[in-house]
Amino acid sequence: MSTFGDIERVAADLYPYRWPITAGLMLALGAGVWAAFRLGWQRWVWRHRLLAGIAGALALAVILPAGWYTLSPLWERSRLEEASPLAASAAAMPGATTGATDLSPGIAASPPAAFEARVTRRGMFQGADDFHFGRGDALLIETEPGRYTLRFENFSVRNGPDLFVYLTGDPGSVDGAVNLGGLKATDGNLNYHVPEGIDVSQYRYAIVWCRQFTVLFASAPLEAV
Question: What is the pLDDT along the chain (225 residues), one digit of tens a residue?
């Protein structure tokens, strides 16, 4: 599918010029229809209307499903709000709940030590180009010793087909990257659990990647805090 990815990247490069290109295409289409009418193509189509009808139906059978799969995500949006692991950790800390504690005189309270979730790396999302926009914060949160969650906050990204979230060392590739699963929503606050045993120090970027067409949509460099 790299060919389709190349086509999408070319389209993204042309995106800032979409209005003059659209106007030019409309003029070219109108000129083409006028030229075809002047050449009498409509008479040929009428004489061979069965063949023309079959060819048109076959073309629509291919173009409509492919166009819907490729283009429909561009205007579809979704939103998801997931609670932050930081808030959950703070609520679970000793002393987070109120209430009287009955202690015998002379016996000091010694609450058990608890691990407090913390942000170890963070970065800001940027779109790959003018068309593939992306914004928001990426936080790598250590929720337990050696266990991590990648969190997106105030996040928004261009929708597309087959979008996945990765941790990677190179924002332009998913070779050797950690696949955290499909994009849950185009907007909101999202959590992605990193599989156990992953050395997160080897992955310096969080990215949103179109797996079908091998195209980067957005990336966030993860810097230590």
Answer: 455 556 655 665 555 555 676 777 788 888 888 887 788 887 887 887 888 788 888 887 777 676 655 565 567 899 999 999 998 766 666 655 545 455 555 555 556 667 899 999 999 999 998 889 999 999 999 999 999 999 999 999 999 889 999 999 999 999 999 999 999 999 999 999 999 999 999 999 999 999 988 999 999 999 999
Q: Tell me how crowded residue 26 is: count the other CB atoms within 10 A of its CB.
A: 10
Give which of 223, 191, 213, 220 is closest to 70, Cα–Cα: 213
C-alpha to C-alpha distance for 51 and 162, rounded to whole angstroms: 37
Task: Specify whether the CB–CB gap between 89 and 117 falls below 8 A.
Answer: yes
Residue boundaries of the structural domains of the chain: 2-75, 79-90+115-224
CA–CA dist 124, 74 (Å, integer): 22
The whole-angstrom separation of Cα 121 and Cα 221 is 9
Query: What single DSSP character describes residue 199?
Result: -
Closest by Cα among 190, 200, 178, 188 to 209: 178
CATH number of 79-90+115-224, picked from 1.20.1260.10, 3.40.50.1000, 2.60.40.200, 3.10.105.10:
2.60.40.200
Q: Would you call 34 helix, strand, or coil by DSSP?
A: helix
Is residue 222 within 8 Å of residue 126, measured between CB atoms? no
